[in-house]
Specification:
Layout lengths: L10 H13 L8 H14 L3 H6 L1 H12 L15 H26 L8 E4 L3 E4 L11 H27 L5 H4 L1 H17 L2
Antiparallel strand pairs: 1-2
Helix pairs in contact: 1-4, 2-8, 4-6, 5-6, 5-8
Length: 194
């Protein structure tokens, strides 16, 4: 049996993150850690160390799909790992992130009111009002929380679906953060070789 390290338990972070957001939407801001840290690894380390070792979501899928046998453990279709799909999904994901930021900006400017709703798969509205008491923070802070939690929850659900259908870490083959960090690493390696 291999020795366990502290980072082998980072899957707990994913569970805690979604649990905290279920009870108080403002905890959604903690998800920015999952956006910033992988980019820092890529920019300063020139590697995908975060994805390979520290990603709590990838660990959670490995745990559920592998050790807990919640995966059919079949190879994913090749197109899921293809360059066009990975970069297309990244563009789509960044577009949805940009739209969320724009909606937050509209609320901050008073052009739109705060909606206490989580959107699953960018379309299905799920009332989530119990997680926030109006006036706790400026409305734009809450709007970002609802939007960001929607994005994180939707991507987790996509990951769980492909985990069940295919191999446990199939999500990792087209994860937008993985695609971005891979692109950064390739750019860094290209500059080093010049």
């Amino acid at each position: 049996m291999k020795n366990k390290h502290w980072y082998d338990y980072l899957w707990i972070w994913s569970v805690v993150y979604f649990g905290l957001g279920f009870f108080n939407i403002l905890f959604a801001w903690l998800g920015m850690i999952d956006f910033i840290v992988p980019l820092l690894f890529a920019v300063f380390g020139g590697n995908k160390g975060f994805c390979n070792r520290y990603c709590g979501r990838g660990q959670l899928f490995a745990l559920l799909g592998g050790r807990k046998k919640c995966s059919r453990n079949r190879p994913a279709p090749a197109w899921l790992a293809s360059k066009w799909f990975r970069y297309g999904f990244l563009v789509f994901f960044l577009t949805m992130f940009g739209n969320m930021l724009f909606q937050t900006w509209l609320v901050a400017g008073g052009a739109r009111s705060l909606q206490e709703v989580i959107k699953l798969f960018w379309t299905i509205k799920v009332p989530w009002g119990w997680t926030y008491t109006a006036g706790m923070v400026p409305d734009w802070v809450a709007k970002f929380s609802f939007g960001f939690y929607s994005l994180m929850l939707t991507s987790a659900l996509i990951g769980l679906i492909v985990m069940v259908l295919y191999k446990p870490r199939t999500w990792c083959t087209f994860c937008p953060m993985g695609t971005m960090t891979q692109g950064i690493c390739m750019l860094k390696k290209g500059k080093e070789n010049e």
